[in-house]
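Q: What would this chain look like folded?
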Amino acid sequence: MRTQQANRYARWAAILASLLAVVVIVVFFVRRSWQTHTAEKQARQAVPSTVERTSNGFTYTKGEGTHKLFTIRASNVTVYKEGNHSLWMDVWITIYGKKGDRNDNIHTHSCDYLVAAERVSCAGEVEMDLQSAEDARRAAASPAGSAPPKIVHVVTRGVTFDRNSGDAVTDQPVDFKFPGGEGRAIGANYTSGDGVLKMRRDIHMKLTPPVAKGSSAKAAPLPIEVDGASLDFQRTAKVMFLHGPVIVRQHGEPAPAHTVSEERELRATLVTVNFDKQLHATNILATGDSTNRPQLNAAGAKGNGGISADQFIADLAPAGWVEHLSALGNVQGDYKSATDSSHISASRIDAEMVPKINQPNAVTATGAVRANSTKGVATRTIDTSALALDFIPGPPSRAGGKPRYQLSHARSLAPATVTMTSPIAALPGAQQSPQPQQRIDHVTGQRIEADFGDHNRMKRLQAHGGTQLDRDLPGRARQTSTSQELAVDFDPQGQWTSFDQSGNVRLKQADRAGQASRAHIDRATDVVVLSGPAEASDASSRTSADSITFNQHTDEIRADGHVLSTYSGKPTDVRASSTGTTAANPGASGSPSGMGPAFSLGSDPAHIASEHLVGNSTSGHALYTGHARMWQGDSIMEADEIELNRQARQLDARGNVQAVFQSAASNLAKTSPSSSTAGPVSNPSSVQPSFSAGKKPELWHIRTSKLSYFDAESRAHLDDGFTAESQGGSITGQNCDIYFVPPAQRAPGTHGGIDHAIARGHVIVRQGTRHGQAERADYTTATGKFVLSGGKPTLFDGDGNSIQGRQLTFFQADDTILVESEEGVRTLTRHRVQK
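A: My prediction, written as structure tokens:
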């Protein structure tokens, strides 16, 4: 809700308070004048020749006991025989009241007293000066001109007073002036028996509140005009009714040339004013009927606004200013300018006013409260059952004027939701639309509060006691996050700049989730930061770190400090999830956990640990750096950095790479092949050895500068030099291709592991005391066989003996050697290598 609306409520309260002052004055002058039994008559007909008597200096006083009620003075009284009436000239009536607290003077040129009808008729002009006895004494005791008299001056004519009923009637215009303004009505009735005064029709008053003591003339309140159909005042009940249509208008402060000043208006069917014993207005009520509700409106150069309700109530201080203002029953308020608009609805709105200046100090709205504002295509809405607003003084709108109170703080008194809609550019992957793309953010809390700056612009929004942030972005599933606390900061233009959540932060989007101690979302960079520590997960993976950062626009991801990713899905799951969204990254299309495994080195989940992670959830690229370590089952890999490429299903480890891979048959003991099978094997995977249980797993420990794993081929490539060692021997060379058992060929319950390997470039194979060298070495895990080829394959034993051939084949399990040369193939078993 805008402060301008609250200020308008205060202005209308001031209007009603001023209206009250005028009504009280009118009540006094009519009541006193019609109780005087005086009359005046202009343009007298010729006095009949028969005159009973004539006297000068007539004085008549009526009292109760020793107390005087009124005194009538006339310079001349003529009693006529004919017509049974008398003529009073230059008549003065002073009314003291039953308590002696009045000093009202009524003066007229002449009055007729009709004896038979017991009626006084004053056809000419009647003037009345009404003031209290205290004011009269104070004015008499003060030097001339030092104390301005507090007098109500009234002019009317055609007044008739019935002495028996005490009723006074006129159908002529009634004009009156008083220190706070002036007014006019047509016709009046006064019944002294029940103290009811009725102004018949065409009520119009112009109110000019006085300048407060010590204020400059520029600070004077602006005039107020009041129009009504009729007016009733019941003195005994101390209540006044101004019947409608009632219209109260106040023009705004002077506007610069060629612009329109603001105008404020109240419309109602009935305005009711209640008084205390001293006839000070204590309460003003504006109501409507079945077709028209009371309405407060304001129009000016900056915009137009209005608020309607079933009734408006103002409580007044004895000095006249509004202390409390209420709008009750289906309250609806709207404001619109060239650039923005706002609306508020509630069951009730209450405003506590600043003393003397009729501006709000605190406002409370209750009952299905909804307040929203729109600027361009951006909107902001709050929904709650109770909302409180606090105001502080701001700079006046003009030099020397009163301060304008502006909104400082707002707080919900019940659970609340704030919805913010703002435009965004089309996000990557989102379908282009001719309509502006919208970001919708919902903030919910058990209690919400906001701080405001200049021009009632929100600076900071906070939600407490269990909060929820729901975010809707084009083409993406809703993102939901919960926390204990939430804060939103805004820029001077009113756009949010950041979200901060703290305390058990939980995030969710589709099948993805995240958690952290704190979460920060930056609007300018589209960056989300989870910290303290943080975790992001989906159906097949999870990543934890001290902090995780997402760029919602580019889908770039960064994790720092104790990074650990766990991948439990299959490669097919990776490809299926690559088009998904993530809740761990509010606004991004993926997450580190959403990249999925790009490898299948074993049946167990894969884990990667490092100090840092940089990746992109759209491309599926991820780079782990800083003591990077990957393990899956018995397969382990360490390097300076490990890089995943999800789309290519490739893993690259670089710098000081160390890896441990298990042999495909490492948990089973193999029997030696018979001599009949000796020789090259064209398909090592087809060899099915016989097994016996109880052997320890065969593990290969690998060191290299670079290792690349291609999951589609179940192949690892070692480059820039390598060493591979196992319990049975070792291999070194320039590069090597290691082939693992493909997932589709793995027997149930097995882990896969190394099926065979091909080493190239200055290859050296060591087994016990013997070693061999060649340009190429082929190793098959199922048979434990090495085949050396290329260059000059040479095999050495522990005594320095060697043998060469075009291809040398030997087995880990025994000393059998197959030598292939130009002379054919021969087998050497359990003897020295011949020279």
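Residues 516 and 534 are 4 Å apart (CA to CA).
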